[in-house]
Amino acid sequence: MSGSTFGKIFRITTWGESHGRGVGVVVDGVPAGFPIVPDEIQKELNRRKPGQSRMSTSRAEKDSVEILSGIFNGITTGTPISMLVWNQDADSSSYEYMKNTPRPGHADYPYQAKYGIRDYRGGGRSSARETVSRVAAGAIAKKLLLRYDIEIVAHVIELGGIRAKAMDFDEIVENLEKTPVRCADIDAADRMQAAVDSARKEGDSIGGVVEVIARGVPPGIGEPVFDKLDADIAKAMMSIGAVKGVEFGAGFECSRMKGSQMNDAISLRDENVFMETNNAGGIIGGISTGMPITCKMAVKPTPSISKEQKTVDMESMKNTGISIKGRHDPTIPPRLVPVAESMMALVLVDHMMQNGSISSVSLLKK
Amino acid sequence: MSGSTFGKIFRITTWGESHGRGVGVVVDGVPAGFPIVPDEIQKELNRRKPGQSRMSTSRAEKDSVEILSGIFNGITTGTPISMLVWNQDADSSSYEYMKNTPRPGHADYPYQAKYGIRDYRGGGRSSARETVSRVAAGAIAKKLLLRYDIEIVAHVIELGGIRAKAMDFDEIVENLEKTPVRCADIDAADRMQAAVDSARKEGDSIGGVVEVIARGVPPGIGEPVFDKLDADIAKAMMSIGAVKGVEFGAGFECSRMKGSQMNDAISLRDENVFMETNNAGGIIGGISTGMPITCKMAVKPTPSISKEQKTVDMESMKNTGISIKGRHDPTIPPRLVPVAESMMALVLVDHMMQNGSISSVSLLKK
Amino acid sequence: MSGSTFGKIFRITTWGESHGRGVGVVVDGVPAGFPIVPDEIQKELNRRKPGQSRMSTSRAEKDSVEILSGIFNGITTGTPISMLVWNQDADSSSYEYMKNTPRPGHADYPYQAKYGIRDYRGGGRSSARETVSRVAAGAIAKKLLLRYDIEIVAHVIELGGIRAKAMDFDEIVENLEKTPVRCADIDAADRMQAAVDSARKEGDSIGGVVEVIARGVPPGIGEPVFDKLDADIAKAMMSIGAVKGVEFGAGFECSRMKGSQMNDAISLRDENVFMETNNAGGIIGGISTGMPITCKMAVKPTPSISKEQKTVDMESMKNTGISIKGRHDPTIPPRLVPVAESMMALVLVDHMMQNGSISSVSLLKK
Amino acid sequence: MSGSTFGKIFRITTWGESHGRGVGVVVDGVPAGFPIVPDEIQKELNRRKPGQSRMSTSRAEKDSVEILSGIFNGITTGTPISMLVWNQDADSSSYEYMKNTPRPGHADYPYQAKYGIRDYRGGGRSSARETVSRVAAGAIAKKLLLRYDIEIVAHVIELGGIRAKAMDFDEIVENLEKTPVRCADIDAADRMQAAVDSARKEGDSIGGVVEVIARGVPPGIGEPVFDKLDADIAKAMMSIGAVKGVEFGAGFECSRMKGSQMNDAISLRDENVFMETNNAGGIIGGISTGMPITCKMAVKPTPSISKEQKTVDMESMKNTGISIKGRHDPTIPPRLVPVAESMMALVLVDHMMQNGSISSVSLLKK
């Protein structure tokens, strides 16, 4: 049951429910001598914060992070960094009606089956609110990776069936925040937005695909046989609520390719080895090749919809119906972007510490 | 670098290279009082053994397993079960030519980049031969799950672009071994076989999709937030060489669905809660729902092809070409079937032991 | 560097420095359906709280615990329980003078050597204040064990060379809190107290021995070979600051015994197997025997003394002297009692969950 | 139940029973590019091998190690190193008589209570034979530490109440193997030997104390709060059968010392910080100080004695007596010396890899 800890050397432990006192994370293993100010964390939290646009719920959380430990005079000391965000504006009353009626597509039923009890207010622990902790920790990991010239970006490449055109890393970074759907292809973004709006009108929701890219990862990161870099990234992404699939490089497309098409030719560029294509998505045999790591994840439509759905009253054990009230995103992918970036960063830092590429002791000695 | 151990309570540790002395596994955490005979392990090893058909390499390994510990008078004692398979018929000479020329699509280059040295004979540690250890351990896990009425089956649902029709669990189990491609849809299987044959003739290879299903998993298995059941299964499957993508239930399809289509209606059948559909693939919020767990994985085409490919001579640091000699499967999915079943079983047993559904102490007390 | 997490299934993660914002702990793996009220935690925190008697520092912390997650309507939900205690009355200014002069017997120098930076205020992370987190988590573990009729008590059996007489479990429990030194032998307690007072007068400090006993542990708890029950308890106790030695049963005495004296005769009492003596301390081969688990730990004298001591000025790299100002316990063992009980409880619960003796899922199903 | 794995980054997994096919270990995390020849392992195994002198059992195992993986052309490749030693000359028949009568002081009863079944031949998994695996892995760890100028030695400092005089590191290394009792104080060694001989004549056994010292460990190794270096060493030593107590530096003596006596004065020597004494045993706050790490362990007398002892017939559930036949050491400490050295080495390497002091990737890059 101790599933709230992630990582081996760079390790995070999260806690908190949607409508409890708050949510938080303890980040252990941050090298000492690394400057961190709350604003750097806040900036990332603001990216995932709801109430930013008509894409997302109108719940207005301030989500101001408090750093409680691990930093002394603005510098990390190597001890655990505890961060906390208080819950506010949580309207619990609006959840009473679903106490005994598990919502289709939600974790209500399996939680009840597992624990025999659940905090049903806003999904409790299984709420997307839990990602506050991931993003706060990810902000530290992402800053740490920049020291090693590793950049991470995630973006929405498909929403409601509308696909964005291929774009290069720098374009994506430049356009990412220009549209509320977080699609770098501005034209596609407009159409995606329309799809979201019509879904909302219907009291329905839509899914999409998020891609996360890590650029600058040196070759040789990852641990065969079970702790492969792609295996750990897949676990990290699948651990995000609403993600139903993960693929690297050509992904599922590779099942329709010939070996001669799939294999990335190895070649020299300015005396450095590189691959002429990147169907492998930057990882082969579980170890980074030096090419960008490209990972796509399938995100299901928001399960909370106002349309009437079938469910069961667990008390009377009778079939019944439910229409989800309250404030909900009509689509998840845009808000999942900073979460996906964070999980990628957490895995990379942990793996680089596992093999000594990043020393867990002081950066002051670096 | 200690990536060769998998599992928390039911834990396996594997070792061995393709052309070393042998390969093996230590399975720790097997409940005491459980009867196991070598034949039960051997039966599964024979399923993954090469040289069975024209689908696979002509390398003829006997692959007879030796059980070295943990079993006393045919009964497990609760101590680690060490199993070993000696390597035979390994023709190393045929690999000398690739010592300095990494094979495209293979782990040669990243291993070299990581370790500065590699056992290049037959791919060394990154060879598919490593899966012998997984299957031997999986045989124990699968038998253990049967005690809890949990059945696992994997099958090829797509090969070279040819898709099998949907079939139910029992049909799949019945037809699975009837065709060398391990596709339960006999008609599709014939076409898949033809595709494999033509790929071989071209000196090329093809990829496919394997589905693994677990039936009978009770609701409530899985640990939020990071050790979600689907997250751990995704890691397990991605840790298998050649797998480039993993999805559950509707998987990537869900990104094109509306919430009202994706959500599985909750209903009653003989006073038991069930879902009328299974787009979730048996897991929501990282916890099993009681519905069958359905997981699909994308398998890339065999990287070893005789067609000439571009690579680099790491010694002279010059561009060059390579044509892979030796004995190789023209396609991987059929042989991956028992491996996928094993990894699913290993994850399920470990999770059921983590939450006490399977006690790690004596089954004699059960 | 991720050393702030303890336990495999019942897992705690602690954070906080002596003079930071506060200290806290995340307890993950607590079975669902278990009633917990803050007062139960507070009661234990009050036992370790300073300022209770002339035995301990005059620093007056309120130490009121706040439970931030994991409990819904007074019942555990199976999700992480986050507990926080704010720091108050922390006079940091009084530590400036030791910024560059590591205190003998303290972790100042090794921390500086490891991290290149340290929060020198009150010892920062290495302060005894960190034990607040252990005791808060231990309160939950101890209550959980009571459900399984397992009782734990710790007491001071030696202080400043004065030894308490042997007493049975119930006597210890009855007398434990009657004396500020937490020695159940009232007569010895008076003499211990005198020794503490004279040490204080001299500006010096004294050490002692704490014994912790667990009664009611069933036989069969513990995991060979490395995760032996006594091995994990030894780690737990040695992880407490100031502990320099740990022994079980006859402990170091056994090195002077013959096998015929040391071996505990196995015999029957009311048809149950028991040992006529308990030189083994309740554990053989790393597994509990059913006899009480008895563990003693050597506690060094408080390193903070006002007597002048030799040290080095790390800035000027010159030899110098230091006299520790501020408020300090003249002896540690009495305040270590609740900490030792907590660590014993944490190890036992974790081991009982590892082998399914305590299910990590709902107690409601028990 | 998965207790047979030790270490986080440098990780060993052991298997095997006293009278099974053999015993072995998988060492994962060994840096690549490190030369290892079987003789280096064999040399250490010979040190622990029985039948060397009248100190130990007459069981004559060849104990020749076979290296099955992880080494290519005499150099480590970074993949798991699997080592195996076949069992020979195992006379199982001589154990039938104890099938239902647990031996006092042995793990027979707790194993039976835990698993409901046990391999009673020669103690099965709980036999000292298991230490073959530790010593084989330790040989690699010790050689690795020499690269970092870290030397480890263990020796017997007390046996049957006879204490050796204090000696310096080099003397100990020089004299260690000169006497069968492995006591560097030759004069004391003679008296210890006499004590062993008389114990054997009486059909009894004696205990002792082993000290293990690590010289050259740089300051800054160890992870607060729970994974303290001394905490992990204590666990490692307590995990060795027959060890009933562990202490560091002044150990239990510190409980009778004043702070002014216990604290090690910090001073300068050739511009380097050192401690004028080493009561801390080289570790404060769980982190190495740069002084030698000194750890003592209490070793109980061999539980197997021919003298009649009380036990219970578990089948008839009646009190009975037992006299242990077969070949047994009259004392354990001398043979425990290489085991203690190995465990110390394993902990140090793992901790140095955890904080990047030893990189888990190629030493070729060093």
From TrEMBL, chains A, B, C, D:
<dbReference type="InterPro" id="IPR020541">
    <property type="entry name" value="Chorismate_synthase_CS"/>
</dbReference>
<feature type="binding site">
    <location>
        <begin position="300"/>
        <end position="304"/>
    </location>
    <ligand>
        <name>FMN</name>
    </ligand>
</feature>
<keyword id="KW-0274">FAD</keyword>
<dbReference type="GO" id="GO:0005829">
    <property type="term" value="C:cytosol"/>
</dbReference>
<dbReference type="GO" id="GO:0008652">
    <property type="term" value="P:amino acid biosynthetic process"/>
</dbReference>
<feature type="binding site">
    <location>
        <position position="285"/>
    </location>
    <ligand>
        <name>FMN</name>
    </ligand>
</feature>
<keyword id="KW-0456">Lyase</keyword>
<comment type="pathway">
    <text>Metabolic intermediate biosynthesis; chorismate biosynthesis; chorismate from D-erythrose 4-phosphate and phosphoenolpyruvate: step 7/7.</text>
</comment>
<comment type="similarity">
    <text>Belongs to the chorismate synthase family.</text>
</comment>
<dbReference type="GO" id="GO:0010181">
    <property type="term" value="F:FMN binding"/>
</dbReference>
<dbReference type="InterPro" id="IPR000453">
    <property type="entry name" value="Chorismate_synth"/>
</dbReference>
<dbReference type="GO" id="GO:0004107">
    <property type="term" value="F:chorismate synthase activity"/>
</dbReference>
<dbReference type="InterPro" id="IPR035904">
    <property type="entry name" value="Chorismate_synth_AroC_sf"/>
</dbReference>
<feature type="binding site">
    <location>
        <begin position="125"/>
        <end position="127"/>
    </location>
    <ligand>
        <name>FMN</name>
    </ligand>
</feature>
<dbReference type="GO" id="GO:0009073">
    <property type="term" value="P:aromatic amino acid family biosynthetic process"/>
</dbReference>
<keyword id="KW-0028">Amino-acid biosynthesis</keyword>
<feature type="binding site">
    <location>
        <position position="54"/>
    </location>
    <ligand>
        <name>NADP(+)</name>
    </ligand>
</feature>
<keyword id="KW-0057">Aromatic amino acid biosynthesis</keyword>
<dbReference type="Pfam" id="PF01264">
    <property type="entry name" value="Chorismate_synt"/>
</dbReference>
<keyword id="KW-0285">Flavoprotein</keyword>
<feature type="binding site">
    <location>
        <position position="48"/>
    </location>
    <ligand>
        <name>NADP(+)</name>
    </ligand>
</feature>
<keyword id="KW-0521">NADP</keyword>
<comment type="function">
    <text>This reaction introduces a second double bond into the aromatic ring system.</text>
</comment>
<keyword id="KW-0288">FMN</keyword>
<feature type="binding site">
    <location>
        <position position="327"/>
    </location>
    <ligand>
        <name>FMN</name>
    </ligand>
</feature>
<dbReference type="GO" id="GO:0009423">
    <property type="term" value="P:chorismate biosynthetic process"/>
</dbReference>
<protein>
    <recommendedName>
        <fullName>Chorismate synthase</fullName>
        <ecNumber>4.2.3.5</ecNumber>
    </recommendedName>
</protein>
